[in-house]
Amino acid sequence: MSRLQLKIFGMLSLLVLTVVVVMGVLNERQLQKRLMRETVRTLKIDSRMTAFTLPQGPISRPNRAALQKAAIRASQATGARVTLIDTAGDVIADSDVPKAQLDRLDNHATRPEVQEAMLGRVGQSSRFSQSIKRTLVYYAIPYQVAPEDKISGVIRLSLGIDRVNAAVRQLRLELLNAAVIGLLASIGLSFALSLLTLRPIRELAEVVSDIAAGQLGRQLHWGARDERGAISRSINRMAQQMREQLAEAESERGQLDSVLSSMAEGVLVVGANGRIILANPRLREFLEAWGDIEGRLLPEVVRNPHLDQALREASLSEGPVVRELEIRAPQPRILLLHAERFPKDGERVGTVIVINDVTDVRRVDKVRRDFIANASHELRTPLTAIQGFADTLATGDIDAPQQQHYLEVIARNAQRMSDLIEDLLALSRIEQDGFTLEIAEIDLQRIAEMTLSDFEPRFEKAGLALRFHAEPCPLALADRRAVEQILTNLLSNAARYTNEGGHVDLSVSAEGDRVMLHVKDDGIGIPEHSRERIFERFYRVDAARSRAVGSTGLGLAIVKHLVSQMHGDISVESELEQGSCFTVSLPSAEADNPSH
Fold first, then answer.
1. How many beta carbons lie within 10 A of that of residue 82, not counting itself?
2. DSSP tag of 104
3. Architecture (CATH level 2) of domain 61-163
C-alpha cells in the first residue's frame, strides 16, 4: 500500500471513527434520556393507579398486613417495586421485601424522593439500592386518605434500569460494528481515491479545518451516495449542531447581558486572582469605573479601602459580607454592598459583589426620625406650659387677675396644640396613597378675592396693608378647597413674618399654559441657606418668633404636598429684611382642553 493510500486510509479511518464516536455519544445520551423519560412516565401512571388500590386508611404499622398485600398486588400489576412509607420515614410495606424483614430496612426519611413527597410534591431519583442490590429509578408521590386530609404517607415505585443498560449496550455494539464496517470500507476507498484527483481530499481538509477554526457556516457539497456523501452529511450535521449550540450560548449570553444591563443593582464579579471578570453598567455608574476594566485588578479601577476590605473578608468567609459604603463623587451616595465567594464549597473561583443604592432609604429614615423628634418637641413645649400653669392654678392661692392671665396662657397653648394636631392630621391625610383631590375648572381670581375678604380683619388688626392685583387669565385645573388652604397658609405666614406697617401683595396672572399665584411681603425675609428647607416639616427660619405668633411649622409642608397633588409647582424668592415672594404655578384648563 502506497504512502498516499496509507494517508487516505488513515484520514478516512479517523473520520469514520470521529463520526461514529460523536454520533454514538450523542445518540447514547438521547437514548438514555428517552428511555429514562419513558420509565418515569410509566412510574407516574403506575403510582397513581397504586394509590387507588390501597385499602382505606393511612400508611401506618396497624395497617401493615393489608398494605403489604396491596403492595404485592400493585407490583404484580405494574411490574415495579412498590414501597409504602409512613410519615416518619419507616417502610411499612415493600413488594420485594418479605414482611418479616421490613423492620430491618433503613429509615427512608432522608431519601431525596421521599423528602420531596413529604412536602407534597412529586419526587424522583436514580441510585443503587442496597436492599435489593440493583440500580433503580425511584418515583414517589404523597398519599392522602382524602383530598382534604394531611399527607399520611408516601407511595414510592421503582424500576430497574436493566432495559436502559441493555439498549445502551446494543447501541454501542451497533456503533462498533459501524466503525468496523467503515474501517473496512476505507481500505477499498483508499485504493479508489488514490486513482482520482486529490481535490476532494483537499476540500475535505479545508472544510474540516475551517469548522475547527470556528467557521461553522462551511459545508461539504458532495451529493454522491457513497462514503463521501456519508462523510459530507455527517460533517455538515456536526457543523449544524455546533452552530445551534453556539447560537444558544450566544443567546444565553445576550440574555445575561440584558438582565445585567437593566438591573437597578450594581454587579461586580472578581476572580480569585483579584482581576475583574464582569461589571454591569449600574456598577460602573456607582463607582465611576468606565472604559475597558475587565481583566484589570480591582484596586487599579476603584480605590476604595472599604470595598477592598469587603472583598478580602468575602474570600475568606463562608457567608456573605455586608458593608455600607459612602461615595462622595460624582454625587454623595450611600451604597449597601453584599459580597460572597463562589462556589461556597471547595476552592474559591471568585467573588460576586452586589451593590444597592440605599441613599433614599437612609434619607427617609432620617426624615422619619427627625419628624418624630420634632413632633415630640413641638408638643412638649405647650404641654409643659399647660401643665405648669394648671398645677399653679390648682394650688388656689392666686388672685383673680393672675388666674385670668394663667387661663389665657393655658388656652393659648391648648389652641397651639390643637392647631399642631390638625396640621399633622392634614399632612398625614395628604400623604396617604389613596388621597385624591377633586380636580375641576376653578376661577382662581374669584377664590383669591374671597380668601382676602376673610383675612382683611386680621391684617387690619396687625397693622398691615393688603393689596390685590389680578390680570385676565383662564380657569385653572385644581381643587377648590386645596387652593383655599394654600392661600390661607401663605397669607398667614405673610402676616406672621411681616412687621407692623408692612405690605402684603396677592396677585393672579397667566404665563403660557399655567395660571400663576403670587404672595409677596416686605417682611423679615428668609436666609439663603434656609430657602431649600422651609418646605420641610417643623423647619422654622426664626423658631422663637414662630412660636410666639403660633406657627406649627407644618404649613409650607402642607402647601407643597397640595401643589404637587395638583401637578403644580411652588417656588420662593427672598432677601433678608426685604421680604419674600411665594409663587404657585397651576395648570390651565385651556391647556388641558384645546377646544375650550
1. 28
2. G
3. 2-Layer Sandwich (3.30)
Per DSSP, the residues of 559-591 read: HHHHHHHTT-EEEEEEETTTEEEEEEEEEBHHH
Which one of 19-23, 36-40, 164-168, 520-524 scores highest in mean pLDDT?
520-524
Q: Which three cell numbers stand for residue 384?
A: 409643659
At residue 460, the 3 state secondary structure works out as: helix
- pLDDT tens per residue across span 340-392: 877 777 777 788 888 877 777 777 666 666 666 666 655 666 677 677 767 77
The residue among 500, 470, 475, 493 whose CA lies nearest residue 560 is: 493
Looking only at the bridges linking them, the beta strands covering 465-470 and 333-342 are unpaired
Place of cell 390643637: 418
At residue 461, the pLDDT reads: 85
Cα–Cα distances (Å) from 369 to 318, 361, 534, in that order, read 35, 12, 18
More confident residue, 150 or 370: 150
- The fold for domain 440-592 equals Heat Shock Protein 90 (3.30.565)
Q: Peptide bond before 343: cis, by omega within 30 degrees of 0?
A: yes
CATH pick for 263-357 out of 3.90.1200.10, 1.20.272.10, 3.30.450.20, 3.40.50.300: 3.30.450.20
Query: What does the alpha-carbon distance between residue 329 and residue 149 come to, in Å, rounded to a whole number?
Result: 61
Q: Which of 157, 167, 7 is nearest to 85 (CA)?
A: 157
CA distance 208 to 497: 90
H-only helix segments in 330-470: 359-395, 400-431, 444-462
- What angle separates helix 400-431 from helix 555-565, to the nearest 10 degrees? 30
pLDDT tens per residue, range 5-33: 566 667 767 777 777 777 777 777 787 78
What whole-number distance in Å separates Cα of residue 243 and Cα of residue 236?
A: 10
Long-range contacts, 150-153 (Cβ 8 Å, 24+)? 151/87, 151/117, 151/118, 151/120, 152/58, 152/59, 152/60, 152/86, 152/87, 153/58, 153/59, 153/60, 153/84, 153/85, 153/86, 153/87, 153/92
Assign a CATH topology to domain 362-423. Answer: Helix Hairpins (1.10.287)
